[in-house]
Amino acid sequence: MSTNTLMASPVLPWKTKIVLTILSAVTDTVRRPNGTINRRLLKLLEFKTPANNEPVRGVKTSDVTVDANRNLWFRLFTPTETTKGDVIPLPVIIFFHGGGFSLLTADSKGYDEVCRQFAIKFQAVIVSVNYRLTPEHRFPSQYDDGFDTLKFLDETDFDKFGFPANADLSKCFLAGDSAGGNLAHHVAVRSGRADFKRVKVIGQISIQPFFGGEERTESEIRLVNAPLISVARTDWMWKVFLPEGENRDHEAVNVSGPRAIDISKVKYPATMVVVGGFDPLRDRQRKFYEWLKRFGKEVKLVEYPNAIHAFYVFPELPESSHFITEARDFVHKVCENA
């Protein structure tokens, strides 16, 4: 039996503990028992970062509207200090933020920092999608927004929205953490059935994807009160995400469960699944990895035994830098083999 199986919680720096406590408290405060979110209060508590066309730490950003009617847009992160040189094509990573489908945005301070780091460390163009949130917009709104962003990239001229000329849409990756990882998977399935002209999805970075199911797993039971994604919080998020009358064995939630879709004939991208030992979703993420393997898909499992959910957004945790290196190497390898 592993050490982390016996431990109730990981050893974390005080800084990380304080931030987790605050974030968990905010999540609990803005969620109402009637299935709504206090957006007015949340707006006061959120930290946002505006786009900046002037390079900051080697990356410039801009916001691009896909569909104003549904507030669908993305933040474009373009590295200005490339080790490859400006004439070398750069892969494009379409990123979906986490937040249980109900919280956070593409301009949230934490995700602006994350995507900025991805752009400079991976030497890639990052498209961070601001999709619609629950409970105001239930399933499948988020998946529609993700897929429609790919269609926008496939059909729109670069010069109309400032896309860098050396961005290579034939080397696209989907990436997302938590709910964003769930979203990336479903967009990968849709794109694998699509007939794009320019966009070619060759890889996926699935960072602790948010999956669920009616039957509790061992890790959910053991880590029932974990920060950020306690079982009570995730149950609430699934309830306001799913159509009325559905349960957590819905194919959007329990992707490898009894109602799982058949992806045997889907052109599914090479995938890196990232798992943390202290993530209540650990068992479901491992099952997702095994499910992809059973369908013969190219998939790599990367586990960090002492990592919590969302570990990679905390630079003070050693696993954070390890993940950046693993993900960078994965992107480069998939690009070389494409």
Task: Give a quick set of tags describing it.
10 helices, 20% strand, 8 strands, 338 residues, alpha/beta
Description:
The chain is an alpha/beta fold and 338 residues long. Helices cover 36% and strands 20% of the residues. Helix 5 crosses helix 6. It is globular, with a radius of gyration of 19 Å.
Query: What is the arithmetic mean of pLDDT?
Result: 94
Q: What is the rounded distance between the termini?
A: 40 Å
Strand content: 15-25%
Radius of gyration: 19 Å
Q: What are the low-pLDDT stretches, counting only 5+ consecutive residues below 50?
A: none
Brief description of this entry?
Helix 5 (141-155) crosses helix 6 (179-192).
List the helices and strands and how they pair.
Layout: H1 3-6, H2 14-30, H3 39-45, E1 59-67, E2 72-79, E3 90-96, H4 109-122, E4 125-130, H5 141-155, E5 167-177, H6 179-192, E6 201-207, H7 218-222, H8 231-241, E7 270-278, H9 282-294, E8 299-308, H10 318-337
Parallel strand pairs: 3-4, 3-5, 5-6, 6-7, 7-8
Antiparallel strand pairs: 1-2, 2-4
Helix pairs in contact: 5-6
